[in-house]
Amino acid sequence: MTEKLFDHENRVGFVFPEDVAKRYHLADGVEVEVSPTEEGIFLKPIGVEPWFSVEWERALDAVVEWYGPALEELGEPGFGEEGEAADASEEP
Fold it and tell me: What DSSP letter does each residue of 18-57 carry, written as one string?
């Protein structure tokens, strides 16, 4: 992902893409700690719950990849209603 910086009131600004902002709960007024590193700049939101982790996202992706077809089938119209799956559970 590549974004351009811009001038803003004698400072340099950056706009996060919407999906990144949502993922990390970044919104207007959230303070961010800026830490220079050898590799670049590290930004850490202050006061935002750290519920998200890269490990969690990888694990979720693996679950969706493995169980995705079954989950899609469960979400199909008719499943658990008056469809084939519901008829199989009813007694004659």
Answer: HHHHHHTT--TT--EEEEE-SSSEEEEESS------HHHH
The pLDDT of residue 83 is above 50 = no
Contact 21, 27 (CB under 8 A): yes
State how far the Cα of 89 lies from the Cα of 40, in Å rounded to an integer: 59
Q: How many residues does the chain have?
A: 92
Return the beta strands (E) in 6-45 as ranges.
Answer: 6-8, 11-13, 32-36, 41-45
> How far apart are alpha carbons 32 and 28 in whole angstroms?
11
Please state whether the predicted TM-score (pTM) of the whole model is above 0.85.
Answer: no
Rounded distance between C-alpha atoms, residue 14 and residue 2, angstroms: 11
For 24-33, the CB contacts below 8 A with 24+ separation are: 24/48, 24/52, 25/49, 25/52
